Amino acid sequence: MAKLWAGVTAGETDPLADDFNSSIRFDSRMFRQDIRGSMAHAAMLAARHIITGDERDALTGGLAGILEDLESGALAIDTGCEDIHMFVEQELTARIGETGKKLHTARSRNDQVALDLRLYLREECAEIGGLLDRLTGVLTDVAEQHTESIMPGYTHLQRAQPVSFGHYLMAYAMMLLRDRERLHDALGRMNVSPIGCCALAGTTYDTDRAMEARLLGFADVARNSMDGVSDRDFCLELMGAFSILMMHLSRLSEELILWASWEFRFIELSDAYTTGSSIMPQKRNADMAELVRGKTGRVYGDLMGLLTTLKGLPLAYNKDMQEDKERVFDACDTVKLCLRIMAPMLAGMTVRTDNMLRAAQTGFINATDLADYLVRKGLPFRSAYQLAGRLVARCMEDGQVLESLPLSVYRSYSPLFGEDLYQEIDLKTCMEKRISEGGTSSASVKKQIAWVRAVLEHD
Q1: Contacts for 439-443 with beta carbons within 8 Å, 24 or more apart?
Q2: Which residue in 239, 244, 255 sits closest to 290, CA to CA?
């Protein structure tokens, strides 16, 4: 097959080199964006009288026919072509004749691929943003059901203080809102048109880059043509946002895996999102959560791979940059898959509030409240802290918890203890006393839920 770039060379390469050089296996997914960009380019060329109105109509009509046939399956992409751009141009010329060859006037594959990639990723951002909102909504829905469900909060994976399960989940909702902001920020810097930068130096034709940008929904044009064709910051920034998002999903997955284990039994995951063992019939494995945790490293790898590819490239375009698409496509696909799995998995889990409460009751997580009680009675905090620690040690020796230790024992340690002690160290009281903004009291958690929902609905 003759190469469209044949000229100074005969365009005859070794078949192995052809295959090595080809990108159509993965960039063919951008056929819609490539055709849309070409339609806008034809419209601009006609508006600047670089081609005629009849030629514009022939080009856009031919492109529309190709798009329709690709989407219906009537036309298959020829993987013998080097890339999606050459396939579309070749098919267009076959359909409408010599006029098809005019479409590439005042552009290069360098700015064309940069345009297609920005258009494609812009659409991916919209889809991922919707999936992110759905997961955030599920977290808030489950949290709303558990604003008073007591569980132990942890530091160093040691039981620390009582919190509600709703409060715990809302921590992840806040993380996802920040991921949402990062995605929006990345989209803003991505929304700049490179078309018209050509190979690297611009063009001698009197083009209207702003018009073409407007037709394609861009907010601005790349202000330097060399930067326009060689910039892949938008891919890196997006993949960086994806990496942080995946880190959050991985942390949540780790919690689900722990909570679903027999050692915790705080939740039970639906059969739809667990698997069994081929040899141990009692097993219910949290494989979907484990895969989300595992796929996080894959997205990190995509980011690091592209950073490494770009780090030594001189300006402007280099063939190395063909490596951008497989990595960013894989990152997009992986993030979407994980978000699609997480939302229904969380929505369908069973929360074992009885086991959560039991763990909270046996973890001495009201010891801080015991110390605070003594402080309010006039004892200095450090002395109160030491006395609370001694009482915890006594409970452990006697097989008791702070709530069951007799008042007579408390008074043997300090006359400051009174009948009001047990109400003060009750776990529900301990939780509900955390009334500060963002705290774990049910009123505070309900405010958090309302705020997150307002953010989602506003945007």
Answers
A1: 439/167, 440/153, 440/162, 440/163, 440/164, 440/167, 442/147, 442/148, 442/164, 442/166
A2: 255
Could you identify the residue written with the tokens 């080199």?
17
CA angle 215, 83, 120 (to 5 degrees): 40
| Pairing of the two strands 158-164 and 192-193 | unpaired
Rounded CA-CA distance 307/304 in Å is 5
- Parallel/antiparallel/unpaired status of strands 192-193 and 220-221: parallel
C-alpha 340, offset from chain centre? 11
Look up tokens 């604003």; give the residue: 147
C-alpha span between 363 and 366 (Å, rounded): 8
Of the candidates 120, 90, 94, the residue with the CA atom closest to the CA atom of residue 104: 90
**Is the Cβ–Cβ distance between 33 and 119 less than 8 Å?**
yes
- Residue 52 near residue 46, CB atoms below 8 Å: yes
- Bridge partners (DSSP) of residue 221 are 193
Distance, C-alpha 171 to centroid of its chain: 16
Q: Give yes or no for a contact between 434 and 147, defined as CB atoms under 8 angstroms apart.
A: no
C-beta of residue 107 within 8 angstroms of C-beta of residue 50: no
The answer to whether the beta carbons of residues 312 and 319 sit under 8 Å apart is no
Alpha helix positions (H), 81-206: 84-96, 109-145, 165-190
pLDDT along the chain (459 residues), means of 10: 55 80 94 98 98 98 98 96 96 98 97 98 98 98 98 95 97 98 97 98 97 98 98 98 98 98 96 80 85 98 98 95 96 98 97 96 92 95 96 94 94 96 95 95 98 94
- Looking at residue 8, what is its pLDDT? 55
Encoded amino acid at 417, one letter = F
CB burial class (10 A; 0-12, 13-18, 19+) of residue 274?
middle
The length of the chain, given as a count of residues: 459
The H-assigned helical ranges of 323-439 are 323-347, 353-361, 367-376, 381-398, 407-413, 421-425, 427-432
Residue 199's closest CA among 5, 442, 415, 412?
Answer: 5
Angle ∠(427,430,434) on CA atoms, nearest 5: 145
Which amino acid, 248? H
Longest dimension (CA), the chain: 101
Q: Are 67 and 17 in contact (CB under 8 A)?
A: no
Cα within 13 Å of Cα(16), Cβ side: 0
Active site residues: 156, 277
In which element (H, E) is residue 244 found?
helix 233-260
